[in-house]
Design a protein that fits this description.
Length: 241
């Protein structure tokens, strides 16, 4: 009798299937210039504003899922748009802000006008690039051609995998930021410092929520699209001023 091979846990599949997309995102122009100390204060703020536009839109699109499915699964999502807006408010001299979870049926306070503006055209994909890895940002929840809410939720878990995983890299980035901009708050990049062990708990939640092959593949697709969205945002901060 042949041995039955157990499927890979969802978090391992996501890591393996998005490794190249992850590396490409880390090598994007804006992030490379930031870590090399080539961005002045205005460039750094432009990078924050670009990411604020991304998270304003994503959190508004996923507000219902973030408020319902995520806490029921045992995870508490902290609004990245709130943290970014706080960092930018501190930069402008207004130090009063509070980071908060996403609320259902309401986009983050002061949602970006970019959400209602035409989306910028994606950059042409490199020759030979994987269509799935370099696909544009994912559509809002419920927009799946299949109309399958389970698949849509799995796609969202893949997107959240990218966001929560970036907090790990943020612990390294924030140390560099404190060298380059010592007079600034860096709440967005420092979020991973508050609970470094939380990543293991999040991985366990992924394994529980993505319990079959179809949901795992949907999550991989969502993660790849989210990486593509980050790459476009971090390509060159000057383009987002």
């Amino acid at each position: 009798m042949d041995d039955i091979v157990a499927p890979r846990p969802a978090h391992l599949l996501l890591r393996e299937e998005t490794r190249e997309a992850h590396e490409d995102t880390e090598a994007s122009g804006g992030m490379r210039r930031l870590m090399d100390g080539e961005l002045d204060v205005a460039g750094y703020e432009a990078l924050l504003r670009a990411q604020l536009g991304l998270f304003d839109e994503w959190e508004a699109d996923r507000a219902g899922w973030l408020a319902d499915v995520v806490p029921q699964a045992g995870w508490s999502y902290v609004s990245r748009a709130s943290l970014l807006r706080g960092d930018l408010a501190v930069a402008s001299g207004a130090r009063s802000y509070t980071s908060r979870p996403v609320e259902r049926h309401a986009p983050p306070v002061g949602a970006s006008p970019a959400r209602d503006a035409p989306a910028p055209a994606p950059a042409p994909a490199p020759v030979g690039a994987s269509p799935a890895r370099d696909a544009p940002a994912s559509a809002p929840v419920g927009a799946s051609p299949s109309g399958d809410s389970t698949r849509d939720s799995a796609t969202c878990w893949g997107e959240l995998y990218v966001i929560e995983g970036s907090a790990l890299g943020g612990r390294l980035i924030v140390r560099r930021l404190r060298e380059l901009y010592p007079d600034r708050d860096h709440r967005f990049y420092a979020i991973g410092e508050e609970a470094p062990s939380a990543w293991r708990r999040f991985q366990h939640i992924l394994d529980t929520q993505l319990h079959d092959d179809a949901s795992r593949r949907a999550a991989v697709d969502g993660a790849r699209r989210m990486f593509a969205r980050f790459r476009q945002t971090l390509m060159e901060p000057a383009a987002h001023v």
